[in-house]
């Protein structure tokens, strides 16, 4: 699970400060405030770690088939107006179970630009509570390798350049001898943490009416949910210990939302094509023939139960096209799944209903402020600023930002004033 994220000089974030993350973290705030950049920074590391070229320092995207996000060039990522040194940095802390123990680790990396315009690692640090390994860029592309608090680097040279932002080179590992094995384990833990990130963007693709089943399960649902039908077909039709489990869980939550009684799959005639159907009030209809809200929330629900235990799910605007009750029920789903399946959710949302239900769950002791972190993002001039909301054990927010969800009290006052004015005029 990712425990902390810290951005400096990255897009709207001059300095986010240490952003504490919980099993469920909700990012709230106005449009274009910087919320999405917090998620994108994790996707930037994930797509870099998965880059086919191990010598790449940072994969800013551009491959539509394999990358999550295209960040543009170095200047598009660097905060506006940053003077020398022109660098940005990403820090994260995470913990992963390894056998009977949990590994706590920290990754910190700063990036600069060469004279030719390439993005390069300026300093990479991987550390645990007891150990720290660093590789620092020097002149002419050489790197120095440092261990713990030693007064001198273990070695210097271009062969020690880091790989994919998260790993030391084979030459650096060999240089470190017995320490190299420990460092390699640390890099592997970081890679696994990034690989465990799953992402669902704010725009979900409309599902097909039916499709040929490939008789295999997809590796991912896709950032727009384009593989959700394939995943549901695989879960319903492949023989396994968990056959039908995802479909049953999705059906349960659709029923809780009042959107369907059940969801199923069926063969189209005698062909090799299958369709996903929705049962509601005694009527069975193709997924394309019911309200768009079902199709839009389906990838959110499927991701929650398709993602392996230990995953971190980044979800943008899960409430899109949902009525207020369904939006509120999403809070219950995120809370329950995070506890039962150990899936971490980092949710960017504009839904007051989702937020309010999470407050209620805290008051009901079904979750806690430690299990659910509420983070408000706002713009102050050109800079994004993060305000952790102070939520007590009764779900009450102690530092409620002004005009958090608009001005409900102000609207009520204006309605009363207008009503009184009209009554006077009509006498």
TrEMBL record:
InterPro entries: AAA_GajA/Old/RecF-like, Bact_Antivir_Def_Nuclease, DUF3696, P-loop_NTPase, P-loop_UCP034888. PANTHER family: ATP/GTP PHOSPHATASE, EXCINUCLEASE ATPASE SUBUNIT. Residues 277-354 form the Endonuclease GajA/Old nuclease/RecF-like AAA domain. This is DUF3696 domain-containing protein. It comes from the Bacteria. SUPFAM superfamilies: P-loop containing nucleoside triphosphate hydrolases (SSF52540). It comes from Simplicispira hankyongi. Residues 369-415 form the DUF3696 domain.
């Amino acid at each position: 699970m990712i425990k902390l994220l810290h951005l400096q000089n990255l897009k709207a974030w001059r300095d986010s400060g240490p952003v504490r993350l919980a099993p469920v973290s909700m990012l709230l705030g106005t449009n274009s405030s910087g919320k999405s950049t917090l998620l994108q920074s994790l996707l930037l590391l994930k797509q870099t770690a998965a880059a086919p070229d191990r010598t790449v320092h940072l994969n800013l995207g551009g491959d539509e088939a394999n990358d999550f996000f295209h960040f543009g060039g170095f200047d598009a990522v660097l905060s506006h107006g940053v003077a020398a040194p022109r660098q940005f940095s990403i820090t994260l802390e995470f913990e992963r179970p390894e056998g009977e123990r949990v590994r706590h680790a920290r990754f910190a990396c700063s990036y600069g630009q060469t004279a030719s315009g390439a993005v390069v690692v300026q300093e990479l640090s991987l550390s645990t509570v007891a150990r720290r390994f660093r590789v620092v860029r020097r002149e002419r592309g050489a790197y120095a390798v440092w261990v713990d608090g030693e007064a001198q680097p273990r070695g210097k040279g271009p062969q020690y350049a880091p790989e994919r932002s998260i790993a030391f080179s084979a030459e650096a590992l060999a240089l470190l001898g017995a320490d190299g094995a420990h460092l390699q384990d640390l890099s592997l833990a970081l890679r696994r943490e990034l690989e465990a990130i799953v992402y669902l963007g704010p725009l979900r693709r409309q599902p097909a009416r039916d499709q040929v089943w490939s008789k295999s399960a997809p590796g991912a649902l896709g950032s727009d949910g384009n593989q959700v039908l394939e995943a549901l077909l695989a879960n319903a039709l492949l023989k396994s210990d968990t056959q039908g489990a995802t479909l049953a869980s999705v059906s349960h939550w659709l029923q809780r939302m009042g959107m369907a009684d059940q969801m199923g799959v069926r063969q189209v005639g005698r062909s090799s094509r299958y369709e996903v159907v929705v049962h509601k009030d005694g009527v069975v209809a193709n997924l394309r023939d019911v309200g768009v809200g079902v199709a839009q929330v389906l990838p959110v629900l499927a991701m929650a139960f398709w993602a392996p235990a230990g995953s971190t799910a980044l979800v943008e605007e899960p409430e899109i096209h949902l009525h207020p009750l369904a939006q509120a029920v999403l809070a219950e789903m995120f809370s329950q799944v995070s506890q039962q399946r150990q899936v971490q959710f980092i949710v960017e949302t504009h839904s007051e209903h989702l937020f309010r239900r999470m407050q209620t769950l805290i008051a009901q002791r079904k979750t806690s402020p430690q299990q659910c972190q509420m983070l408000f993002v706002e713009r102050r001039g050109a800079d994004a600023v993060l305000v952790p909301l102070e939520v007590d054990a009764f779900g009450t927010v102690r530092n409620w930002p002004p005009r958090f969800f608009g001005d409900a009290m102000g609207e009520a006052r204006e309605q009363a004033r207008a009503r009184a004015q009209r009554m006077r005029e009509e006498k």
